[in-house]
Write a structure and sequence with these properties.
Layout: H1 6-16, E1 21-24, H2 31-36, E2 44-47
């Protein structure tokens, strides 16, 4: 059985909509998405160094 995780569905949806960059300030909540980005090379993560 092929497992499909929400994180991969979310990132695939962003790709399908033409998103190329994701901006964020990661914490433990986003850790699964951060790891899944390795499987989505068309998405570039841009680190925000502060929240303000």
């Amino acid at each position: 059985m092929n497992e499909n995780y929400g994180r991969d569905t979310f990132l695939s949806l962003l790709e399908d909509e033409g998103v190329t960059h994701i901006f964020g300030n990661p914490g433990t909540t986003e850790l699964a998405i951060m790891h899944a980005l390795n499987d989505h090379p068309d998405l570039t993560y841009v680190l925000g160094l502060q929240e303000a």
